[in-house]
Design a protein that fits this description.
By secondary structure, the chain is mainly alpha-helical. It folds into two domains: about 10-55; about 60-120. Helix content is about 65%, strand content about 0%. The chain is built from five helices and no strands. It has helices at about 10-25, 30-55, 60, 65-95, 115-120. The two termini are about 60 Å apart.
Amino acid sequence: MATAKIAISLDEGTVKRLDHLVKNRIFPSRSKVIQDAVEEKLKKMGKGRLARECAKLDPEFENLPLFFLHASLLLLVKFHTFIIQILTKLSSYLDIPCALCPLGFHSPCPFPLTPDALRS
């Protein structure tokens, strides 16, 4: 990564703490300490910005896909119930077990899937 030289002013206490980090080989140089500190600060500020932007979102609008998913599931259940009713009628006319029932019950099916059953 390309680097650029800049000049900064720090109070003496901060410089002594930087020198201590370099002397104890925690960082290879003052520049590296300052570079890492600035990068960390910029990352934290970026995360804060993300949180601020998320707070601006409209919860009702964001939940719209959930509403459509729920509506689609209810339609699917109604369609399923309709198909079960047709198969149950057919099985009663032909005197055969319900085609969807794994237990082979005759109509009417004792385990119909209804919208009320899904809500509980």
